[in-house]
């Protein structure tokens, strides 16, 4: 039986299948006299790297993993703070709270008990989730297969059923920022129509892609065919459910985390949460006791408490899915941004290694990273982008498990778990596809422009958008619209987020964020009411802030908590571009 440790302290887990929890305890002991005053870093067998903060007899402790996305926290010399190497979050070790972002979350603490001269560190609230793995049964050739198509999209076949994952098969993602590396099979639409299940891991448009899903919806309507069953994580914010329903899909299988759901007599699936705080999910497919694990973009899938010895692991490898720091060169300068990107590359490799060592796959597939920023107007971003290669992925996986085979997919290539080659410790590789030579950029940028032109561009309507968004704070937002090349300024507005109105002069207020953005992208956001992640991850804006502090609540609101239906504007006016 395989099990994994899980923390009840995190509220997200309270909905998990409690019947499958088992108790587990572990602890470490240190002599109190060996713990120095102030903040110090230690390495303990049971915990790995931890911080201990001591003020006299008050001792607190936590791991060195950042709450944001699992990066490594490092002590800031001469202070009681630690800073994350990835995106700069700062943790005050005396209060165990993040101070950058302002009013940031709490860091989960290790329980500390003082017993005379000893300090006992323990994970006393731990419980374990029992994955209740079944004894493996022999597979026939062709019975359980994975076929790669594009980016995070592939076909999992078990017996005569199929699950298609995250179909992004046409057009761009993130408004006009990302473009596919691989050409999908020519019959992708027919196969999507005939699929039994479609899994949508989260709401980013490289996973929930409206160009692809609208083609599917319209074709099903034309042919009067019933839709596949969508496997959807039951996020509290309904971030996958609402857009699927608005496209017109109704056949949704809403799954809670950590519960097995039977699809056929021999096949069941389980969704796992991303505990880094993002609404993302991972998928486990169990067919006759053989496991496929797709961790998609999860920075911290189930806090790394994964089923061990999976047969095949689909793991994101490339990174780069963030506008920070690449769109912040005005803030930091190009050379500092380059340095930060290199650091991020390294910590991402460490994370791949950690996931690989948790799930110990027989075969690992570099997955969900096959995009490019190839629009000619995005050359500046393209030059800075530091994506990890599949070779980097291979090195990290091998460090964790030298026997894992690496399968480098090409579109249409498949791996058959009924074949015996998965015992082979050597890499199973295919040459990579040639990049798509024609993305038809204009067709899609014209679509963005035509939506943008529907925005009645007045101060009053901009104010209306921010009142619709519903975020109020003592913060000043300066939004400067630019043409597509970021050469000519088109408009410059300042929004006081306390009054949610456009103001004529910049009030004296310390917290200031300037966003330089393509006019069409901004107005597309105003019209569609879409998440600002579409703009930020798609590298469609440039940012500058005073002070240089991450405004967690602002970004969380505009990225994850906008109202589910778009704003309605009072009046139309001719576009002012
Ligand atoms: S700031 Fe730590 S992972 Fe992002």
Question: How would you characterize the overall build of this protein?
Answer:
With 577 residues, the protein is α+β, with helices and mostly antiparallel strands. It folds into 3 domains: 26-123, 3-layer Sandwich (Rieske Iron-sulfur Protein); 142-439, Ribonuclease Z/Hydroxyacylglutathione hydrolase-like (Metallo-beta-lactamase, Chain A); 445-560, Nonspecific Lipid-transfer Protein, Chain A. 21% of the residues lie in helices and 30% in strands. It has an 8-stranded mixed β-sheet, with helices on one face. α2 links the parallel β18 (197-199) and β19 (229-233). The longest helix is centred in the middle third of the chain and has 26 residues, at 334-359. It starts with a strand and ends in a 17-residue tail after the last helix. Residues 1-25 have low confidence and may be disordered. FE2/S2 (inorganic) cluster (FES) is lined by residues 66, 68-71, 84, 86-89.
For the biggest sheet, the summary is:
8 strands, mixed
Shape by Cα distribution = globular
Instruction: Tell me the radius of gyration.
Output: 24 Å
Bound molecules: FE2/S2 (inorganic) cluster
CATH level 1 name of the largest domain: Alpha Beta
Assign the CATH topology of the largest domain.
Answer: Metallo-beta-lactamase, Chain A
Mean pLDDT: 88
Q: How many beta-strand segments?
A: 35
Total helices: the number is: 12
Q: How many separate domains?
A: 3
Helix-strand category: alpha+beta
CATH architecture of the largest domain: 4-Layer Sandwich
| Strand line-up across the major sheet | 21-22-23-24-25-26-28-30
Helix content: 10-25%
CATH level-four homologous superfamily name of the largest domain: Ribonuclease Z/Hydroxyacylglutathione hydrolase-like
* Poorly predicted runs: 1-25
Beta fraction of the residues?
A: 25-35%
Distance between the termini: 64 Å
